[in-house]
Protein backbone atom coordinates (compact mmCIF):
# COMPACT_ATOMS: atom_id res chain seq x y z
CA UNK A 1 0.00 0.00 0.00
CA UNK A 2 1.26 3.49 -0.84
CA UNK A 3 2.62 5.59 1.99
CA UNK A 4 0.53 8.53 3.15
CA UNK A 5 0.88 11.61 5.34
CA UNK A 6 -2.17 11.63 7.62
CA UNK A 7 -1.70 15.18 8.93
CA UNK A 8 0.51 17.92 7.52
CA UNK A 9 3.03 17.08 4.79
CA UNK A 10 5.88 15.08 6.24
CA UNK A 11 9.25 16.63 5.27
CA UNK A 12 11.45 14.69 7.69
CA UNK A 13 15.08 15.82 7.50
CA UNK A 14 16.47 13.32 9.99
CA UNK A 15 16.37 9.55 10.44
CA UNK A 16 13.00 7.84 10.05
CA UNK A 17 12.84 4.38 11.72
CA UNK A 18 12.03 1.35 9.62
CA UNK A 19 8.32 0.63 9.62
CA UNK A 20 8.61 -2.65 11.51
CA UNK A 21 10.63 -0.88 14.21
CA UNK A 22 8.00 1.77 14.94
CA UNK A 23 5.72 -0.32 17.25
CA UNK A 24 8.69 -1.60 19.26
CA UNK A 25 10.10 1.90 19.55
CA UNK A 26 6.75 3.13 20.88
CA UNK A 27 6.72 0.37 23.51
CA UNK A 28 10.29 1.30 24.42
CA UNK A 29 9.23 4.93 25.00
CA UNK A 30 6.52 3.79 27.41
CA UNK A 31 8.80 1.43 29.34
CA UNK A 32 11.65 3.95 29.45
CA UNK A 33 9.52 6.77 30.87
CA UNK A 34 7.25 4.74 33.14
CA UNK A 35 9.39 1.96 34.54
CA UNK A 36 11.90 3.89 36.68
CA UNK A 37 9.19 6.14 38.18
CA UNK A 38 7.25 3.11 39.40
CA UNK A 39 10.12 2.23 41.74
CA UNK A 40 10.38 5.83 42.90
CA UNK A 41 6.64 6.06 43.59
CA UNK A 42 6.79 2.80 45.55
CA UNK A 43 9.60 4.18 47.72
CA UNK A 44 7.55 7.32 48.35
CA UNK A 45 4.48 5.22 49.28
CA UNK A 46 2.47 6.65 46.40
CA UNK A 47 1.39 3.16 45.35
CA UNK A 48 -0.65 0.63 47.28
CA UNK A 49 -2.08 -2.88 47.05
CA UNK A 50 -0.91 -5.97 45.18
CA UNK A 51 -1.27 -4.24 41.80
CA UNK A 52 0.56 -1.03 42.81
CA UNK A 53 -2.49 1.19 42.34
CA UNK A 54 -2.15 4.94 43.02
CA UNK A 55 -2.52 5.77 46.72
CA UNK A 56 -4.79 8.73 47.38
CA UNK A 57 -5.03 11.97 45.44
CA UNK A 58 -1.29 12.66 45.50
CA UNK A 59 -0.52 9.16 44.24
CA UNK A 60 -3.06 9.45 41.46
CA UNK A 61 -1.75 12.83 40.30
CA UNK A 62 1.83 11.56 40.39
CA UNK A 63 0.79 8.45 38.44
CA UNK A 64 -0.82 10.57 35.72
CA UNK A 65 1.64 13.45 35.48
CA UNK A 66 5.03 11.81 36.03
CA UNK A 67 5.31 8.93 33.55
CA UNK A 68 2.97 10.44 30.97
CA UNK A 69 4.57 13.86 31.11
CA UNK A 70 7.92 12.22 30.44
CA UNK A 71 6.36 10.14 27.66
CA UNK A 72 5.16 13.29 25.88
CA UNK A 73 8.58 14.91 26.26
CA UNK A 74 10.34 11.78 24.95
CA UNK A 75 8.05 11.70 21.91
CA UNK A 76 8.59 15.40 21.22
CA UNK A 77 12.35 14.98 21.55
CA UNK A 78 12.36 12.07 19.10
CA UNK A 79 10.31 13.94 16.51
CA UNK A 80 12.30 17.14 16.90
CA UNK A 81 15.88 15.91 17.18
CA UNK A 82 15.94 12.45 15.55
CA UNK A 83 13.35 12.57 12.78
CA UNK A 84 13.66 16.36 12.56
CA UNK A 85 10.14 17.03 11.39
CA UNK A 86 7.65 19.68 12.57
CA UNK A 87 5.06 18.85 15.22
CA UNK A 88 2.30 19.60 12.70
CA UNK A 89 3.18 16.26 11.06
CA UNK A 90 2.08 14.40 14.22
CA UNK A 91 -1.28 16.16 14.32
CA UNK A 92 -0.45 19.28 16.33
CA UNK A 93 -1.54 21.44 13.43
CA UNK A 94 -2.63 25.04 13.18
CA UNK A 95 -5.38 26.15 13.46
CA UNK A 96 -6.27 24.02 16.43
CA UNK A 97 -5.05 24.34 19.98
CA UNK A 98 -7.22 25.32 22.92
CA UNK A 99 -10.52 25.80 21.09
CA UNK A 100 -10.35 22.43 19.36
CA UNK A 101 -9.20 20.78 22.59
CA UNK A 102 -12.19 22.30 24.41
CA UNK A 103 -14.58 20.95 21.77
CA UNK A 104 -13.07 17.53 22.33
CA UNK A 105 -13.56 17.90 26.09
CA UNK A 106 -17.26 18.55 25.60
CA UNK A 107 -17.68 15.61 23.24
CA UNK A 108 -15.82 13.28 25.58
CA UNK A 109 -18.01 14.32 28.50
CA UNK A 110 -21.19 13.81 26.48
CA UNK A 111 -20.11 10.38 25.25
CA UNK A 112 -19.20 9.28 28.77
CA UNK A 113 -22.58 10.49 30.04
CA UNK A 114 -24.23 8.51 27.23
CA UNK A 115 -22.27 5.41 28.25
CA UNK A 116 -23.06 5.68 31.95
CA UNK A 117 -26.66 6.72 31.23
CA UNK A 118 -27.14 3.72 28.98
CA UNK A 119 -25.91 1.36 31.70
CA UNK A 120 -28.26 3.01 34.22
CA UNK A 121 -31.26 2.78 31.89
CA UNK A 122 -30.44 -0.91 31.37
CA UNK A 123 -30.61 -1.52 35.10
CA UNK A 124 -26.89 -1.87 35.72
CA UNK A 125 -26.46 1.12 38.05
CA UNK A 126 -28.35 2.53 41.02
CA UNK A 127 -28.40 6.21 41.93
CA UNK A 128 -27.08 7.44 45.26
CA UNK A 129 -26.15 10.90 46.52
CA UNK A 130 -26.35 13.82 44.12
CA UNK A 131 -23.11 15.78 43.66
CA UNK A 132 -21.56 14.86 47.04
CA UNK A 133 -18.25 16.44 45.99
CA UNK A 134 -19.73 19.92 46.49
CA UNK A 135 -19.93 19.31 50.23
CA UNK A 136 -16.18 19.84 50.43
CA UNK A 137 -14.00 22.54 48.89
CA UNK A 138 -11.05 20.15 49.13
CA UNK A 139 -12.91 17.59 47.01
CA UNK A 140 -13.68 20.17 44.31
CA UNK A 141 -10.04 21.25 44.32
CA UNK A 142 -8.88 17.65 44.03
CA UNK A 143 -11.25 16.96 41.15
CA UNK A 144 -10.03 20.10 39.34
CA UNK A 145 -6.43 18.96 39.88
CA UNK A 146 -7.29 15.55 38.45
CA UNK A 147 -8.74 17.21 35.33
CA UNK A 148 -5.36 18.80 34.65
CA UNK A 149 -3.58 15.52 35.43
CA UNK A 150 -5.86 13.49 33.17
CA UNK A 151 -5.31 16.07 30.42
CA UNK A 152 -1.55 15.43 30.62
CA UNK A 153 -1.98 11.64 30.69
CA UNK A 154 -4.51 11.46 27.87
CA UNK A 155 -2.72 13.98 25.69
CA UNK A 156 0.55 12.08 26.06
CA UNK A 157 -1.10 8.87 24.88
CA UNK A 158 -2.63 10.65 21.88
CA UNK A 159 0.67 12.30 21.00
CA UNK A 160 2.41 8.92 21.01
CA UNK A 161 -0.21 6.64 19.44
CA UNK A 162 -2.44 8.78 17.22
CA UNK A 163 0.21 11.44 16.64
CA UNK A 164 3.64 9.96 16.17
CA UNK A 165 2.97 6.22 15.72
CA UNK A 166 -0.01 6.57 13.38
CA UNK A 167 1.81 9.08 11.17
CA UNK A 168 5.08 7.12 11.19
CA UNK A 169 3.36 3.87 10.20
CA UNK A 170 1.18 5.55 7.56
CA UNK A 171 4.27 6.98 5.90
CA UNK A 172 5.67 3.45 5.55
CA UNK A 173 2.61 1.25 5.05
CA UNK A 174 -0.46 3.43 4.42
CA UNK A 175 -3.27 4.63 6.65
CA UNK A 176 -5.27 1.41 7.08
CA UNK A 177 -2.26 -0.60 8.24
CA UNK A 178 -1.23 2.27 10.50
CA UNK A 179 -4.65 2.32 12.19
CA UNK A 180 -4.67 -1.45 12.72
CA UNK A 181 -1.13 -1.69 14.07
CA UNK A 182 -1.13 1.43 16.26
CA UNK A 183 -4.45 0.35 17.80
CA UNK A 184 -3.04 -3.12 18.46
CA UNK A 185 0.01 -1.67 20.24
CA UNK A 186 -2.25 0.61 22.33
CA UNK A 187 -4.34 -2.43 23.31
CA UNK A 188 -1.26 -4.50 24.13
CA UNK A 189 0.08 -1.84 26.49
CA UNK A 190 -3.30 -1.76 28.29
CA UNK A 191 -3.58 -5.55 28.43
CA UNK A 192 -4.54 -7.21 31.72
CA UNK A 193 -4.61 -10.99 31.64
CA UNK A 194 -7.26 -11.02 34.38
CA UNK A 195 -9.66 -8.76 32.45
CA UNK A 196 -12.56 -10.21 30.40
CA UNK A 197 -12.26 -10.34 26.61
CA UNK A 198 -14.88 -7.62 26.28
CA UNK A 199 -12.55 -5.21 28.08
CA UNK A 200 -9.77 -6.03 25.61
CA UNK A 201 -12.16 -5.61 22.68
CA UNK A 202 -13.38 -2.24 23.97
CA UNK A 203 -9.80 -1.06 24.41
CA UNK A 204 -9.17 -1.78 20.75
CA UNK A 205 -12.42 0.00 19.82
CA UNK A 206 -11.29 2.95 21.92
CA UNK A 207 -8.10 3.17 19.86
CA UNK A 208 -10.01 2.79 16.59
CA UNK A 209 -12.36 5.59 17.60
CA UNK A 210 -9.43 7.86 18.45
CA UNK A 211 -7.83 7.08 15.07
CA UNK A 212 -11.08 7.74 13.22
CA UNK A 213 -11.47 11.08 15.00
CA UNK A 214 -7.92 12.24 14.23
CA UNK A 215 -8.22 11.13 10.59
CA UNK A 216 -11.56 12.94 10.23
CA UNK A 217 -10.25 16.21 11.61
CA UNK A 218 -6.64 16.05 10.39
CA UNK A 219 -5.25 16.78 13.86
CA UNK A 220 -5.05 15.32 17.36
CA UNK A 221 -6.13 18.40 19.34
CA UNK A 222 -9.76 17.36 19.52
CA UNK A 223 -9.13 13.72 20.38
CA UNK A 224 -6.71 14.81 23.11
CA UNK A 225 -9.57 16.74 24.70
CA UNK A 226 -12.03 13.88 24.15
CA UNK A 227 -9.72 11.34 25.79
CA UNK A 228 -9.11 13.69 28.74
CA UNK A 229 -12.79 14.28 29.49
CA UNK A 230 -13.69 10.61 28.93
CA UNK A 231 -11.20 9.46 31.56
CA UNK A 232 -11.74 12.30 34.00
CA UNK A 233 -15.54 12.25 34.07
CA UNK A 234 -15.72 8.49 34.48
CA UNK A 235 -13.23 8.63 37.34
CA UNK A 236 -14.65 11.66 39.15
CA UNK A 237 -18.19 12.25 37.93
CA UNK A 238 -19.85 9.07 39.18
CA UNK A 239 -17.45 7.37 41.65
CA UNK A 240 -16.86 4.60 39.11
CA UNK A 241 -13.57 2.95 38.24
CA UNK A 242 -11.51 4.13 35.29
CA UNK A 243 -9.51 1.29 33.71
CA UNK A 244 -9.84 -0.58 36.99
CA UNK A 245 -8.58 2.34 39.12
CA UNK A 246 -10.49 4.20 41.82
CA UNK A 247 -9.85 7.92 42.23
CA UNK A 248 -11.29 7.79 45.79
CA UNK A 249 -13.06 11.10 45.16
CA UNK A 250 -16.73 11.82 45.90
CA UNK A 251 -18.88 12.09 42.78
CA UNK A 252 -18.98 15.43 41.03
CA UNK A 253 -22.37 14.65 39.42
CA UNK A 254 -24.03 11.64 41.03
CA UNK A 255 -22.82 8.63 42.99
CA UNK A 256 -23.61 5.44 41.09
CA UNK A 257 -23.28 1.86 42.33
CA UNK A 258 -22.95 -1.16 40.07
CA UNK A 259 -25.84 -3.61 40.49
CA UNK A 260 -25.90 -5.42 37.14
CA UNK A 261 -23.75 -8.13 35.55
CA UNK A 262 -20.15 -7.43 34.57
CA UNK A 263 -20.84 -7.58 30.82
CA UNK A 264 -23.22 -4.64 31.30
CA UNK A 265 -21.47 -2.55 33.96
CA UNK A 266 -17.86 -3.39 33.15
CA UNK A 267 -17.35 -4.89 36.60
CA UNK A 268 -14.06 -4.10 38.30
CA UNK A 269 -12.74 -2.41 35.14
CA UNK A 270 -15.44 0.27 35.14
CA UNK A 271 -17.98 1.33 32.54
CA UNK A 272 -15.43 1.14 29.72
CA UNK A 273 -15.56 -2.65 30.00
CA UNK A 274 -19.32 -3.06 29.36
CA UNK A 275 -21.38 -3.67 26.28
CA UNK A 276 -22.95 -0.18 26.39
CA UNK A 277 -19.49 1.28 25.90
CA UNK A 278 -19.08 -1.06 22.91
CA UNK A 279 -22.21 0.41 21.34
CA UNK A 280 -21.19 4.02 22.04
CA UNK A 281 -17.70 3.57 20.57
CA UNK A 282 -19.02 1.76 17.48
CA UNK A 283 -21.52 4.58 16.93
CA UNK A 284 -18.71 7.12 17.28
CA UNK A 285 -16.52 5.30 14.76
CA UNK A 286 -19.41 5.08 12.29
CA UNK A 287 -20.12 8.80 12.72
CA UNK A 288 -16.50 9.78 12.11
CA UNK A 289 -16.26 7.74 8.91
CA UNK A 290 -19.65 8.96 7.68
CA UNK A 291 -18.67 12.58 8.32
CA UNK A 292 -15.32 12.19 6.59
CA UNK A 293 -16.93 10.61 3.51
CA UNK A 294 -19.66 13.22 3.42
CA UNK A 295 -17.09 16.02 3.61
CA UNK A 296 -15.07 14.40 0.81
CA UNK A 297 -18.15 14.21 -1.42
CA UNK A 298 -19.00 17.87 -0.79
CA UNK A 299 -15.47 18.96 -1.65
CA UNK A 300 -15.45 17.04 -4.94
CA UNK A 301 -16.36 19.34 -7.87
Describe the 3D structure.
With 301 residues, the protein is mainly α. It has a domain at 101-296. Helices cover 64% and strands 5% of the residues. The protein has helices at 22-43, 56-83, 98-121, 137-173, 175-189, 197-217, 221-237, 262-265, 275-299; strands spanning 47-48, 53-54, 125-130, 254-258. Helix 4 (137-173) crosses helix 5 and helix 4 packs antiparallel against helix 7. The protein starts with 21 loop residues before the first helix and ends with a helix.
Overview in brief:
With 301 residues, the protein is mostly helical. The protein has nine helices and four strands; from the N terminus they run αββααβααααβαα.
Shape: globular
* CA-atom Rg in angstroms: 19 Å
* Strand line-up across the major sheet: 1-2
- Structural class given helices, strands, pairing? mainly alpha
Strand content is under 5%
The tally of beta strands, per DSSP, is 4
| Helix fraction by DSSP (H/I, runs of at least 4) | 55-70%
**Count of runs of 4 or more consecutive helical residues:** 9
**Main sheet, how many strands, which sense, barrel?**
2 strands, antiparallel
Measured between the Cα atoms of the first and last residue, the distance is: 27 Å
Mean pLDDT: 92
Q: Topology as H/E string?
A: HEEHHEHHHHEHH
Low-confidence stretches: none
Amino acid sequence: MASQAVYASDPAKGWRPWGVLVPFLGIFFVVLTGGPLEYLFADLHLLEGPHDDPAGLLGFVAFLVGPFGLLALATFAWVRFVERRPFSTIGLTSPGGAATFAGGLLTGALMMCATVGGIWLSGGLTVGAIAPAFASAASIGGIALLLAAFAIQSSAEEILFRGWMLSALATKFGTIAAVIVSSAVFTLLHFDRHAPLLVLFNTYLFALFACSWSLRTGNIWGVMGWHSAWNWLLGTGFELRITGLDTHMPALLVKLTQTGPGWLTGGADGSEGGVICTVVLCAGIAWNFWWKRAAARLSTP
